Structure prediction request, 134 residues.
Amino acid sequence: MTPELDLIGMVSTDLARTVAFYRRLGIDIPPDAEREPHVEVRLPNGLRLAWDDVATIRSFDPDWTPPVGGARTALAFRCADPAEVDRWYAELTAAGGQGHRPPWDAVWGQRYAVVHDPDGNAVDLFAPLPPAES
Prediction:
């Protein structure tokens, strides 16, 4: 059997802020989950997304240190249309998300924007652009 991607795990320095950010983005996270050291949800497509606080990670990897520099991963969220990219970017940044790249029309045919979650991970928002009129 070939290994199958089943879970994306992320480390959080402030689980309450992280959970609030992803709830705002529409991920169905159980009530009071932010009080736990490990939060895990199954997304509608079957993939699991999880966050652990630093203490949990260090409980099995005592030498763990946070990465430095720019984000090394990005979670990309498809939006319904280009206007939704703009709306989500505005909503997330108004709620305290760190805007990294405001919405733009990318050369690859998508409306695109990048917000950082509370731990600096890139959260990409995108939607296909309508076909250009000739």
